[in-house]
TrEMBL record:
PANTHER family: PYRUVATE FORMATE-LYASE 2-ACTIVATING ENZYME (PTHR30352:SF4), PYRUVATE FORMATE-LYASE-ACTIVATING ENZYME (PTHR30352). It comes from Acetomicrobium hydrogeniformans. InterPro entries: 4Fe4S_Fe-S-bd, 4Fe4S_Fe_S_CS, BssD/PflA/YjjW, Organic_radical-activating, Organic_radical_activase, Radical_activat_CS, rSAM, rSAM_sf. Belongs to the organic radical-activating enzymes family. One of its GO terms (molecular function) is metal ion binding. Its cofactor is [4Fe-4S] cluster. Residues 52-79, 80-109 form the 4Fe-4S ferredoxin-type domain. Residues 21-300 form the Radical SAM core domain. This is Glycyl-radical enzyme activating protein.
Length: 305
């Protein structure tokens, strides 16, 4: 009998069906909450914190004040609009439950392995017909590696294609524990210089580089697509693109890279009362993307923009 381990709980902030940008075919993308990095340009700020949190959509708000009345912690002050005292909020969800217009949303929901599998299995027919599957993204899925591993095992049992979208920032034994259950890695490389990496992501890139080499050394280069976020004046500098090309060239067998152009998500940060560090809200030009593409094609990579 197929017994699913339901003792593990995962905190998930979104399950997106019919996704076509996170690996081959039609996919269900599962977004894990929690990430050890603090990338300035992060386009999923609701995935950074490892706990639940409230998002406030001002354009939906009816200004009724109901949320402030029900909060058991007195964490919402109502002054024409609800002002959330984040330090007092225990993410109980009482306010979002009574909000008549869904202007408050509690981000993060616990799933057992079985519950998440039910969601994933809904679209098995689409996966089969399109060569798709499931993608684990975030946040950083390896941050909840025990839960991730159990879900990966269940997917493997029923032959669902499994993609892991990762920053690569995790202890090597964690990566090793999931490696055999992953079909495709979407592996971020952001900044090759360590000091720059620390400045813009909050962590060193040493482990990220070592983990990529670990995958390559274990014959998995063919199953890796590098993802490079193109952020003007941060990752998109002549030095960094050159260093990226050299670093990838030093790893035998890597074949493909996706360029991910920056887009402004300041609105999401506002909804979470988080600071958005990106002062240059500029997407890279088509010409610039083509120039980077040309450079990376020059080292034999297939480059997708
Ligand atoms: S989630 Fe709970 S504690 Fe936080 S503001 Fe809403 S009602 Fe208050
Ligand atoms: S309950 Fe909802 S609609 Fe009413 S003030 Fe609060 S956030 Fe706005």
């Amino acid at each position: 009998m197929n017994e699913v381990k339901n003792s593990y709980l995962g905190l998930i902030f979104d399950v997106q069906r019919y996704s076509i940008h996170d690996g081959p075919g039609i996919r269900t993308t599962v977004f894990f909450k929690g990430c050890p990095l603090r990338c300035w340009w992060c386009h999923n700020p609701e995935g950074i914190d490892s706990g639940k949190e409230l998002m406030y959509f001002e354009y939906k708000c009816l200004h009724c004040g109901t949320c402030a009345h029900v909060c058991p912690m007195g964490a919402i002050e109502f002054d024409g609009i609800p002002i959330i005292r984040r330090s007092m909020c225990i993410a109980c969800g009482s306010c979002s439950a009574v909000c008549p217009s869904d202007a408050l949303k509690l981000i993060g929901k616990e799933y057992t392995v079985g519950e998440l599998m039910k969601e994933i299995e809904r679209d098995v027919l689409y996966f089969d017909n399109s060569g798709g599957g499931v993608t684990f993204s975030g946040g950083e899925p390896l941050y909840q590696h025990e839960f991730l591993l159990e879900v990966l095992k269940e997917c493997k049992k029923i032959d669902i294609h499994r993609t892991l979208d990762t920053s690569g920032f995790a202890p090597q034994e964690v990566l090793a524990s999931v490696m055999d259950y992953v079909d495709l890695f979407l592996y971020d490389l952001k900044l090759i210089d360590e000091k720059e990496h620390i400045k813009y992501t909050g962590v060193s890139n040493a482990q990220i580089k070592e983990n990529l080499r670990f995958l390559v050394d274990h014959g998995r280069a063919k199953d890796v697509i590098i993802r490079f976020p193109v952020i003007s004046e941060i990752t998109d500098t002549a030095d960094n693109v050159e260093a990226l090309a050299e670093f990838i060239s030093s790893m035998k067998g890597l074949k493909e890279i996706d360029l991910l152009p920056f887009h402004d998500v300041s609105e999401k940060y506002n909804r979470l009362d988080k600071d958005y560090k990106m002062t240059v809200h500029k997407s890279p030009s088509r010409e610039r993307l083509l120039a980077i593409k040309g450079r990376l094609e020059g080292i034999g990579l297939y480059v997708k923009v």
